[in-house]
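User: Show me an example of a complex going from sequences to structure tokens.

Assistant: Sure. Here are the input components:
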Amino acid sequence: MKPVAIPLDVALRAVQAEAAAADVELLLPGSGGREAILHGLAAVHAISGDGWDLAYAREHVSTALPGAGAPALAALALIPVAGPILAGLASAFKRTTVSLSPAAMRDGLTLMATWRHESGHVGAIKRGGLMWCIAYGIVPEVRAGAEAPCYGADIAHHVHLGGADLDGITAAVLASLERYGLDEPALRLARGIVRSNAESVRRGADPGDVVAETRASLRAAGWEP
Amino acid sequence: MRAANALRAALVVIAVIVAVGVVDGCDPIREGVMRVTTGVPEPSACVPDSQRCAGAVPEVCSQSSMGNTRWWPSLSLRADGTQRVCSNGCVVDDAGVAGCASPDASVSAASDGGAL
């Protein structure tokens, strides 16, 4: 498929429109809210001692976090040590919040791919609520089942819209998934899901119509390919 | 009031369960969390690492450290929380990989291929 150039300003308009339609708070790089999220996550990871790098995250990590009501916050705050930090993060926003990294806004294609990835997490939060986020945090299998399909959307975008080499982007995605603290069974699940998406793309398919959705969104924002 | 108290009690129980799970990394607790979380598939008999088409959704079989197996969808969710599907159907290839059918192969695509 022929690569397309997506202007960053058009992509941003498309993402903002989708976020508004999904009732999602969108935080751009440099915003105070994004900084608060990154520092909160850094605190949580510092407790777990897993070597999470704030400087790297500030540049490269986009997030989707739930907004939370009072009962859920009360439950979250009871989790030892990290709970109050997580509750503080969730209470800072009244609705689900997507925070975009500077790397995500490198170009229009990357922004759309990142948004489509994060919108998968938005859907999971919408369906499973705060409990989903807790399960994501403590069960590697859930993290694998949550992240790998979203990375499938990245693969489809970079190949179908960006003309990327399928094997190359698949290898990059698999390397990214190694950074989620997955145990061996969870890694096998993640690899299987990535392989499924890669094979769909290899066949010329658009897995779950993620690229079609992006094209429609861009057209609505005024994009003329 | 009674409902509010019941909800509060339930939340405390959940929080304690989660807290224990966090502290201990205990497999039964993790499994318990999975069972009560909307969006986590129910345990289902399958061969770990195998793939199938569940209707128009490719799925991959996982096995937890507890030994329970589950079918996980390989497609992400839409932002509204609904499951994405293969618009041209799902197929399992000769290598056992389930995925979306190519646009020009939709006529022959299986919509409910079995587990391998």
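The lines above are the inputs; the final block is the predicted structure for all two components together. The two ends of chain B are 52 Å apart (CA to CA).
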